[in-house]
Amino acid sequence: VQLVESGGDLVKPGGSLRLSCTASGFLFETYSMNWVRQAPGKGLEWVSFITGSGGSVDIADPVKGRFTVSRDNAKNSLFLQMNTLTVDDTAIYYCARFDVETVALDIWGQGTMVTVSS
Amino acid sequence: QSALTQPASVSGSPGQSITISCTGTTNDVGSYDLVSWYQQQPGKAPRLLIYEVSERPAGVSHRFSGSKSANTASLTISGLQSDDEAHYYCTSYTTGKNFVLFGGGTRLTVL
To answer: Is the Cβ of A44 closer than 8 Å to some Cβ of chain B?
Structure first.
């Protein structure tokens, strides 16, 4: 059971980036997924949620209107489209599997670093 | 949405026990047995330690235990070891929300 994020990079303020998370070892389409981020030296911050079918999503207020979450179950992949990036979006972005019964993030990826700087 | 309240830091000596608190409200911790705890060792991704207040996933040491009273959940680590030195985060289900609410995190130092 594994999650592997990719797509992190250095980007200028106002720019865009698309993160990917590839799952393996479990039936991806049956699990809701989350993105969680961690700014340098700070705590964990929930970013987004998407159900297994992709039919229901939720986005944290600080990024609402700028970030979009989606998934491609045929490719066992989760995505985070990030637009109009600001320096405050600089963070490690983790994807995490969500167990809806226990409300726990039971599997985490290793994270991908997004740096927003001019 | 306010984060759950955790102490910024705790410390203990090898072999001792420590407890980290996580205080919420009647909208989250107080109303649901859906509190989880995560360990994040330096430079690593978080990992699930405890779910549903006191349940341990396979592979997690019995030295880690969880409990809850009213609006406060607690994580106890017994027989402290040097590699327990990490940040610990609590989360809880929140009424009517899809997302989990994170605590601010607690840094554990093993003296």
So the answer is: yes
Supply the pLDDT for residue B3.
75
Nearest to A35 by CA among A25, A23, A45: A45
Sheet holding A67-72, edge to edge: A2-6, A17-24, A77-82, A67-72
CB burial string B66-93: b at 16+ within 10 A, e below: bebeebbbbbebeebeeebebbbbbbbb
Contact A15, A7 (CB under 8 A): no
- Residue A32: closest CA among chain B residues belongs to which residue? B98
Contact A105 B101 (CB under 8 A): no
Question: Looking at the predicted structure, is the pLDDT value of residue B99 above 90?
Answer: no
Beta pairing class for B64-69 and B72-77: antiparallel
Q: What whole-number distance in Å separates Cα of residue A98 and Cα of residue A78?
A: 13
